[in-house]
Here is the input.
Amino acid sequence: MTWLAAASTGATPGAAGQAIGYPTLFLLVFLGALVPVVPTGALVSSAAVVAFHQTAPLSLLFVFVTASTAAFLGDVALYWLGRRGMGSKNGSRWLEAIRSRAPEERLAQAQGKLADHGVAVLVLSRLVPAGRIPVMLACLMAEWPLRRFVRGNLPACLAWAVTYQLIGILGGSLFKEPWEGVVAAVALTVAISVAPGVWKRVRSTG
Here is the structure.
C-alpha cells in the first residue's frame, strides 16, 4: 500500500499517493471481510498512523469512512452469500468457508448469546478477536433476514473502525517517525488478536 511504503521511508504521501491509498485500503478491507485471512485491523491501524502524521485535516476522517464502509459492504456481501448457501440443497463454498472458521464451541456460545441479547451481540462480535464469523453463522442459522443483519452490522463496523483507528492514532502519537508508529500499531493489533487464544491455553494448562 502507498501509505505503508511512505511510512517505511518516513515520507508523507501527497495527493497522488492518497488517491491510490484510499481505494487500496477499501479493497483490502472489503476482501478481508469476505475472506477472513487479511489482517484488516492492522491495515486500518497502519493507515491511521500515516494519516495522523499528515498535514491534511481530513485524512483520519477519510480512513474511518473508507474502512468502515468497506467492512460493512464486505460483511453484507458475505452474509448474503451465506443466506444463498443456506437456501441451496448443496450449500455453497462461501457457506462452507464460514462454517470452517466457526468452531462448534464458539458457535454454540454465539448462538446462546444471540438468543439472549440479539443485535447487541452482533455489534460486539467485530470487536472480539475471531468473534465475527461465529456470530454471523449463528445469525444465518437463526434465519435472520438480511435487513435485520444490516441494522446490527452497521454500528458494529463503525465501532470496529473507530477502535482500530484509535490504536493507530495512539501508535502515531507515541513515535515521531510514521514507520515506528506503524510497527507499534501492528504489534498491538496482533497482540490483541492472539491474546484470547493464549489466555485459553494458559487456563487449560493451569
Residues 5-13 have pLDDT under 50 and may be disordered.
